[in-house]
Design goal:
The chain folds into two domains: 62 residues, Phospho-2-dehydro-3-deoxyheptonate aldolase, domain 1 (Alpha-Beta Plaits); 256 residues, Aldolase class I (TIM Barrel), CATH 3.20.20.70. 34% of the residues lie in helices and 18% in strands. The chain has eleven helices and 15 strands. The strands form three sheets. The chain has an eight-stranded parallel barrel with strand order 7-8-9-10-11-12-13-14, surrounded by six helices. Strands 2-3-1-4 form a four-stranded antiparallel β-sheet. It starts with a strand and ends in a 12-residue tail after the last strand. The structure holds phosphoenolpyruvate and manganese (II) ion. Phosphoenolpyruvate (PEP) binds next to loops.
């Protein structure tokens, strides 16, 4: 249920309503909007007397949220959520591009790729230090050393860092280095991990599970928000289908579906969706045309020797060309591509 407060409700009246909700053993989530303040009530609402609540001073109405997810739903919050990271706005009218290698390999390579993607106009650097590999014998990532290289690349370029957290026990270490925590597709329903990232303050990008429905995806986002973290970004990265020409099948219609169901920003990762470099640019463009709030793209200067996912990595020059095309598409659909440095005028930092 959502309680809509009357315009001009005092803080005292609001606190009283919040207390009443807590007294009933339920969890209030207050959302102060530009025009209205609303309070979502999470928990078993049978314990609650709706009439007693609507009679409280300051309450305009109580509206049920019909969807199974509450805090992430558009029913709860009409306006788009904008997640801000070091001054970069993810969501709203902006289109933001995150790019970088699949995994952090060497310090020099990471820094050189970071410089290239910044020149091309990307706003955020991606790179995995802990890799969720299908085989236990594959490269598992550099761990803390990789996080340190990411921090150095941020210092050098000013680009914020997004990196995957695999284990709740790594959180203190991740908190030192990451600007955005990524929860990977394989961990979308690792509920302890979701609660852990939900109980800290950094933004979280949640990737859709390999075989997850949109409802399951949103319920996982609800775990993070209900644990107290409202800074959640969703990422469509392709789902498993019978098709074998592509690594996964990019569910492009998930973008407008999600935009309708939730106020959270939606990013598309075409790299993991298609698994082949030649398909990344067309799907990246399609994603922006379909209304995505941004992209995550794997870029590597020597894909043939990449430790991981070389088959889907774009070369920096091709990525730069793509950014120029994305800029045009963003304009055509009434959006603005956030350029770290404008693609056409970029120079070495
Ligand atoms: C990644 O982005 O590094 C990754 C492993 O992607 P996914 O979780 O979507 O497979
Ligand atoms: Mn990868």
């Amino acid at each position: 249920m959502v309680i809509v407060l009357k315009p001009g409700t005092t803080d005292r009246e609001k606190d009283h309503i919040v207390q009443k909700i807590k007294d009933a053993g339920l969890m209030p989530h207050v959302l102060i909007g530009e025009e209205r303040t609303v309070i979502a009530i999470i928990g078993d609402e049978r314990a609650f007397q709706k009439q007693a609540l609507t009679a409280l001073p300051g309450v305009e109405k109580a509206v049920p949220i019909l969807s199974p997810y509450k805090l992430v739903s558009r029913e709860f919050k009409k306006e788009d959520t904008i997640v801000e990271v070091n001054g970069i706005k993810i969501g709203g009218n902006n289109v933001v591009v995150m790019a970088g290698p699949c995994s952090v390999e060497t310090n020099d390579l990471l820094t050189s790729i970071a410089i290239e993607i910044k020149k091309a106009g990307a706003s955020i650097l991606r790179g995995g230090a802990f890799k969720p590999r299908t085989s236990p014998y594959s490269f598992q990532g550099l761990g803390e050393e990789g996080l340190e290289y990411l921090s150095e690349a941020r210092q050098r370029t000013g680009l914020p860092i997004i990196t995957e957290v695999l284990d709740p026990r790594d959180m203190p270490m991740m908190a030192k280095h990451a600007d955005i925590l990524q929860v990977g597709a394989r961990n979308m329903q690792n509920f302890k991990l979701l609660e852990e990232v939900g109980s800290q303050s950094k933004p979280v990008m949640l990737k859709r599970g390999l075989s997850a429905t949109i409802k399951e995806f949103l319920l996982s986002a609800e775990y993070i928000m209900s644990a107290g973290n409202p800074r959640v970004i969703l990422c469509e990265r392709g789902i498993r289908t019978f098709e074998t020409q592509t690594r996964n099948t990019l569910d492009l219609s998930a973008v407008p579906v999600l935009k309708r169901l939730t106020h959270l920003p939606v990013i598309v990762d075409p790299s993991h969706a298609v698994g082949k470099t030649y398909l990344v640019a067309p799907m990246a463009k399609a994603a922006i045309a379909a209304g995505a709030d941004g992209l995550m793209i794997e870029v590597h200067s020597n894909p043939a020797e990449a430790f991981c996912d070389g088959d889907q990595a774009m070369l920096p020059d091709d990525f730069k060309q793509l950014m120029i095309e994305l800029d045009r598409i963003a304009v055509a659909v009434g959006r603005t591509l956030s350029l770290g440095t404008p693609a056409s005028t970029a120079s070495t930092p």
